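Below is a typical protein record.
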Amino acid sequence: MARIFPFRAYRYSAAAGAPANLITQPYDKITPEMQERYFSLSPHNLAHVIRGRSGPGDTETDNVYTRAAGLLESWIASGILAREPAPALFAYFQKFEPPDVAGAWPCLRKGLIALGAVEDYWEGTVYRHELTHSGPKRDRLELLRRARAHCGQIFMLYDDPSLAVDQRLDRAAQKAPLTLLRDEYSVEHCLWRIDDPAEIAEIQRLIQPRKLLIADGHHRYETALAFRREHPELEGAARVMMTLVNTRSPGLVVLPTHRVLGNLAGFDGQQLLRQARKWFEVVDLASLDALQARLRGVPAGRMALGAIFRGDRRSYALEMDYQQADRMLPELAPAMRRLDVAVLHELVLARLIGMSAEDVRDERHLRYLRGFQAAAAEIDRPQTQAVFFLNPVRVEQVAEIAFSGGVMPQKSTDFYPKLLSGMTIYRLEQG
């Protein structure tokens, strides 16, 4: 049973300045260069809270986390952040053009911002599709302990063929938006309030029978779980801010995340290709354009990986039908054998190259990049030895694996665009 709740969100007031100077990408997408730019835009930019700077003079009582908490308190006291007058849900729409897609078209993704009950995975309401790492969770937990606030939303998926909630979001979007901005990726973000008690109750009823699948924000969700266990006495800790998106939404876009291999002792691309021919049909292609077209045109019942190697100007497609994947990977669940990312990790990285699960988890010799051309350009870097290209995972594949209790290789999915942090802020003391 999925339980969602309205809340009295904090939002930036007009006194804070233009929303585009204040609201940011999620903390884990903020590069050092982005951090510097955000800091320069405004002293009230949310990056000062969610991605602040540590310093050599930091102490137990004066550090990046205590400063973040102090900033939030001061912004509330000075009116930079203002609390909503009544509990509400929010319609959050994102209009964008998918990157790196031939003939990209404008998409509209419709989300519902609400508080959701923090539930253990074993309770059968919230499901994950990726494993998490301890480092990011330690960082986010310390910030939550100090600031007692969620500034970004967990990206949750639910399935409703009737689109009943989406229709109510559309009605809310007939009004002038509370917030409207365009981010650094030219994505337009709009926010509307839903505060009619009858409408809220109906949306709660419609969401209640759904299972929830974490699309993005696994570390933050598990941080919320840990904080709830630490503070059972704090009512607000039992809820976390989330944006719920219907899997039937035409604006739900998943991009592939390509793999860049480098600094691996004894690596030989041609030897890898010779070994790969035992299991794959290796197709030799004259250009990157031909490879990209080949990957996009994989027929039903087959999968394909792309590969390029340093010092070799050819491109290669490593193809396999589903029956061969079943023979090669009997230890994997059937749904996992249909994922090109699982085939890459299990057969190419592990068996052919010899990378361990710890190598992959700790990103030794391996980097991840979005965008076909951006990944291809990495082959000219001296430390790069190979680039492997993937097709995007389908949402229904993610759901099938997650709802059966499975988890996918890390960075298997890249739901685009990201949900901005700071559109709404939830302070846990409010319950």
Notes: The longest helix spans residues 64-78. The chain has a mean pLDDT of 94. Residues 71 and 77 are 10 Å apart (CA to CA). The chain is about 30% helix and 25% strand.
